[in-house]
Write a structure and sequence with these properties.
Distance between the termini of chain B: 68 Å
Helix content of chain B: 10-25%
Number of strands of chain A: 12
Strand content of chain B: 35-45%
Number of helices of chain A: 10
Number of helices of chain B: 4
Radius of gyration of chain A: 24 Å
Oligomer: heterodimer
Largest sheet of chain B: 5 strands, mixed, barrel
Shape of chain A: elongated
Largest interface: A-B, 73 and 64 residues
CATH class of the largest domain in chain B: Mainly Beta
Structural class of chain A: alpha+beta
Order of helices and strands of chain A: HHHHHHHHHHEEEEEEEEEEEE
Distance between the termini of chain A: 37 Å
Number of domains of chain B: 2
Radius of gyration of chain B: 27 Å
Amino acid sequence: MGLEYKFVLWNRYKKKYDLVIAGFSIIFLLLFAGITLIVNRETTVETLVIRGFGILAVVMLHLILVIGPLCRLQPKFLPILYNRRHLGVSMFLAALVHGGFSIFQFHALGDTFPIYSIFTSNLDYFSLSNFPFQVLGFFALLILFSMAATSHDFFLANLSAVTWKRLHMMVYVAYVLILLHVVLGAFQQETSLFTIIVLGLGFVLVVLLHLLSARQELRADKIQSVETEGWFRVCEVDEIEDDRAKIFTLNKERVAIFKYENKLSAIHNVCKHQGGPLGEGKIIDGCITCPWHGYQYLPKNGQSPPPYTEKVATYDLKLVGSTVFIDPNAHAEGTEVEPLIITK
Amino acid sequence: MKKQDEFFVPYISESLGSKTKKAIRRLVWTILFAIIVIAGVFAFTQKPFKNGSFELTSETRLTGVFHENPYPMLRVKVADDSYKNILLLGFGKSSVNPYLAVIRKDFETLAGKELAIEGNLIYYNGKTLVQITSEEKIKVMGNSDPNILPKKEKVGKVTLTGEIIDPKCYFGVMKPGYGKIHRSCAVRCISGGIPPVLAATDSNHNLHYYLITDMVGGAIHESILPYVGKPAEITGIVETYEDWQFLRINVEDIRETGEASLIY
């Protein structure tokens, strides 16, 4: 969490994370270039750069897309998600090198403005095999740019979390555009079955992990709550672990009920920072701590501890015997609700 | 009931537990392995590049007799009774004609004149081209007799299968300088004044190159752009001019085959 905006709020995890990104990128580029020069030495530097950075960007994009569902399925991978934005910006830079070199190589120094040439040099828009695939890559690059340019808490706060999230969900549009860019472009000329299999496996991995993660979420959403006089019966108090929460879906909203210090409190499940699942978080130093980036909220009022200003909605709870009931009507964000004391 | 699992909070030192560390370490090794495999697969499976050359950083001085039929060339003597016709090209994706236009202001005609030219050589498979970067690189050395220039010899009507390429990229500037990936560039080059060339294969898979002109032997650029970079079958009249062949065509006689080109 940070109060003021800095370009990067460095800590040792971020430094280590970025070193791994840079190290792996260099290893990939050196290996690709080295093997190409050994087995296919008539290549040119431009071709090595365009191909090397293009493949690197696609590999990074797959990694970015699988991190989310992977963390849902196995929370031990959450530290990888923590700094995903740096991986996203790195991916954009790799894509920019690929796109920039390609635009210069194929469209510059001619009789037309290079960007105009991307759209007009090949007009077979109604042919599948001849489709102007560079247009698809160009639009994907624009989306990646808009995401990379706003990949900072300053934009997150000023665009609002919802708008920011919507903008960054465009990564799936970019992914489809990039897949089509590769299939209708490079794969029309470089027709190795092995590379097609590699990309196919990547696509299957992304889809499979998303489906498994969605199934897990749907299962949680299907937990039926019984309504009695405006209150929903949600669970037995012993079903919630200490300093942890259970998540329930009420009126299409996810609510997290936390148990801590022999008390119960309920808040809206969505973190105000990047929409992380607060109910998968933990009570640390008396605060609900988001599993994604460690944003904190006080359980009694859903407010971030001062001087921070984030707020989430709170809910009323009641205990009948050992059974927990919740009023599905949310209080305004940051409204104080007296924690429910667990009596035995 | 207290859950004893680990919970990572980036700003809390030592919150990265041993089980989490182990899982992350395994994942990182898996990613590294995947990266090595992917780099290998994509590097090993690339189609071979042609051994064309582009001498970008060095200029060569050439002296020969200028002619254009219709594309500007320099006829250079390489041995007794042996000549090479070097195709003259401008900088980037452009024709040499703007530079020649400046030179022409001082001379009635350039055809048959001896020129000294400095430029970057491009060569592959017996063909040589030269990139000239300004009119200052062209010097008129004196008069020559235009009648010593050979004439085109008509061979006959043929149907050829291949791909229309821009010779600048194909013969050395880009690798690969043909096919779908390169099509936009080839379109820009030919649109900018680089002569279109048909790279065609015969029944023995040998490659032959034909400078394409219209049916009266004039330069052709814009009208051929929709067919550039696609496997095609073209019927036209072949003519030879020493080490080059020309193909007179009607653009309407180009038929896209939709099949993989053998020039790759």
